[in-house]
């Protein structure tokens, strides 16, 4: 009569295998990340299931019985086969990946990361797509928790208590202006900065305004002449007039190179701004998601 495997706890067999290979219950427990009492209880249950002592204690440690010696090659082969199959299932070949990754990072992600990321993906994962979406910060977090968003770039260190989070790098701010702006070849003071006419972007709900952090309540003293809805509109306003705009330095470097603008150091000493990337806990060990996160990290 065949043994009904539904009545057998298959988790007991790795304990049996470890004891056979290490000759010690304590060492087997340590190897498997178990407590000694838990390993002892597992061995006791397996002895009852197989109706054999399996191991007897001697001066040299635990010695296997004839039944254990007979059983070990079968158990070891099955466990090795299962491990191999699980490893193959977890292997990932980016060439065949057709996943669409959704990222909330706004214009910053689009300008600083998107182009370089696509160039890398084109070579190693030609079927992968990247979709940049714009949401307020709290909405982005909710979408990540619901599995509707893969990644979020932000400035909020405290989110590491809620979601897996990695600091990508530290950022700073600078002031953009046209090449023919009166201050293009002058040193910019803080009083000059407040007096100049500014073009600004809208603030998304829940997002931290880094200028508020740097300038405190004095941010309201800026002379805001225009409010636009996109970085491209801001660039055109700067290029076609004597308005100035304040942007992260990495973004400013790209805009200066592409549009012939001038970037001036921000006229106030300020701590660097950490840029973080967060994702859902259930994506943390997903090999495909981990691979994609590493692609972004590798760009810096």
CATH superfamily of the largest domain: Periplasmic binding protein-like II
Give me the side-by-side strand order of the main sheet: 4-3-5-12-6
| Overall structural domain count | 3
CATH topology of the largest domain: D-Maltodextrin-Binding Protein, domain 2
What's the β-strand tally?
A: 12
Give a short overview.
The protein has helices at residues 12-22, 25-32, 36-50, 66-90, 106-124, 137-145, 190-195, 210-215, 231-240, 249-259, 287-297; strands spanning 55-58, 61-64, 100-104, 129-133, 151-154, 165-171, 173-177, 197-200, 223-227, 245-248, 262-265, 273-278.
What do these coordinates show?
- The protein is α/β, with parallel strands linked by helices and 300 residues long.
- The protein folds into three domains: 5-90, Winged helix-like DNA-binding domain superfamily/Winged helix DNA-binding domain (Arc Repressor Mutant, subunit A), CATH 1.10.10; 94-159 and 279-297, 3-Layer(aba) Sandwich (D-Maltodextrin-Binding Protein, domain 2), CATH 3.40.190.10; 173-271, D-Maltodextrin-Binding Protein, domain 2.
- It is 44% helix and 19% strand.
- It is built from eleven helices and twelve strands.
- It has helices at residues 12-22, 25-32, 36-50, 66-90, 106-124, 137-145, 190-195, 210-215, 231-240, 249-259, 287-297, and strands at 55-58, 61-64, 100-104, 129-133, 151-154, 165-171, 173-177, 197-200, 223-227, 245-248, 262-265, 273-278.
- The strands form four sheets. It has a five-stranded mixed β-sheet, sandwiched between helices. The chain has a three-stranded antiparallel β-sheet with strand order 10-7-11.
- A hairpin with a 2-residue loop joins strand 1 and strand 2 (61-64).
- Helix 1 packs across helix 2, helix 1 crosses helix 4 and helix 2 packs across helix 3 (36-50).
- The longest helix has 25 residues, at 66-90.
- The mean pLDDT is 87.
């Amino acid at each position: 009569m065949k043994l009904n495997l539904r009545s057998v706890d298959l988790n007991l067999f790795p304990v049996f295998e470890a004891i056979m290979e290490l000759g010690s219950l304590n060492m087997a427990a340590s190897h498997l990340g178990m407590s000694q009492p838990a390993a002892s209880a597992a061995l006791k249950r397996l002895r009852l299931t197989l109706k054999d002592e399996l191991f007897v204690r001697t001066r040299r440690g635990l010695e296997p019985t004839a039944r254990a010696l007979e059983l070990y090659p079968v158990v070891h082969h099955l466990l090795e086969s299962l491990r191999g199959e699980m490893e193959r299932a977890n292997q990932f070949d980016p060439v065949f990946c057709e996943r669409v990754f959704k990222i909330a990072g706004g214009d910053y992600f689009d300008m600083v990361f998107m182009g370089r990321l696509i160039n890398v993906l084109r070579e190693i994962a030609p079927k992968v797509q990247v979709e940049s979406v714009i949401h307020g910060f709290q909405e982005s977090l909710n979408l990540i928790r619901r599995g509707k968003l893969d990644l979020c770039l932000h400035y909020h260190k405290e989110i590491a208590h809620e979601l897996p989070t990695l600091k990508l790098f530290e950022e700073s701010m600078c002031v953009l202006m046209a090449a023919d702006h009166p201050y293009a070849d002058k040193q910019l003071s803080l009083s000059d900065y407040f007096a100049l006419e500014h073009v600004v972007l809208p603030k998304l709900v829940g997002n931290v305004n880094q200028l508020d952090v740097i300038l405190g309540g004095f941010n309201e003293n800026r002379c805001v002449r225009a409010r636009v809805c996109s970085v491209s509109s801001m660039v055109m306003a700067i290029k076609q007039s004597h308005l100035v705009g304040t942007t992260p330095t990495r973004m400013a470097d790209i805009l200066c190179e592409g549009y012939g603008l001038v970037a001036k150091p921000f006229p106030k000493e300020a701590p660097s701004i950490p840029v973080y990337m967060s994702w859902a806990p259930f994506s943390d060990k997903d090999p495909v998601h981990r691979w994609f996160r590493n692609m972004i990290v590798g760009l810096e």
